[in-house]
Amino acid sequence: MKMPFRYGCVVDGEYFCPRPELERQLRSYAESGQNLVIQGERRMGKTSLVKKAISGMKGERLLYIDLYGIRTLSDFCRRVMSGVGGVTEKMSFLKKALSLAHRLRPALTIDSTTGAPTITVDARAASEPDSLGAVMATVKKLAEDGGLCVVMDEFQDLLKLEDSAKILAEMRGTIQFQADTPYFYLGSSRNDMLRIFTHYDSPFFKSALPFEVPPINEAAFVRFIVSRFRKGGCEIAADVARSLIKFADGVSGDVQELCDALWSVTSEGASVSADDLPKALAVVFAREKNGFENAIADLTPNQLTVLRGLAQMESARVFTSEFMDSVRIASPGAIKRALNSLVASRLICQNRTEYTFSNPFFREWLKVNA
Question: By C-alpha distance, which of 29, 14, 8, 15 is closest to 151?
């Protein structure tokens, strides 16, 4: 039987839990050309939400640029031009893009699997100092035709580039003159996104309106989960579905992963119960074991000790005597240094004075395996 849940990728269609109010707001901002900083916890469904909202707009094209893991200017230029190739299959548009970016020596290829057009550029040409200007000018010229929404996902990864301040400044210099073209900047690292959009010395200071993607409304999410289990030939009570949402802190991607694991250990026609949760977690742990082990392999003894302490004392206030006694580290400075490293590696998140796990399954795995 077809699996009723999908996670770890952009979801749409029946796999997408509708969020009509947020979709309406995003469309309204796109229509008015408003730039947005779209934030939310990891795996909260930001990308899926934005793609669903924009794809539902008549005459609006979506230029989606995934910046995750970029390390060089060449990476950035290639990602942008790859996104341009995915905007439309109209040959006239693609030829125009190729012409505008001619100094990058672009080439149009067709994906052998999907049949979709892709624009590739010469890596050496994309590393030249003027390559950024050529790429941004291409996007600007294409946007002049109207009906284009530019989405830059994992925007904070630009900070990892050499001369990131100069690159951001040049980008901003082009974007600020595109008043009718909405730019949506998505990010999963709250501190880095704040650094880009709220620090006075940043070129992007107050250049976009904050837009928070909260957890899905619980009642709507429960209905979605119940209906998807039924689609997969199983039943689940509403109170059990609520407990899954609570376990995963309302993060939609984690909820769907847990639901998928539960569905995989449930016989067709059977009902899911809370007693099945340990079996489902065992499935998740088996799938992610290598990743979890790699995550702790390079940690210092203090970092691992603090991480274990957080797993055992959820939402702990880490500078209390109770926490310091539990981890047997008497120095607040040593704990703070460990926490800073764990936040930088994105294993945990900081919300003022509280620290929580980025991945609830990692938290549960640590309780029994590290």
Answer: 29
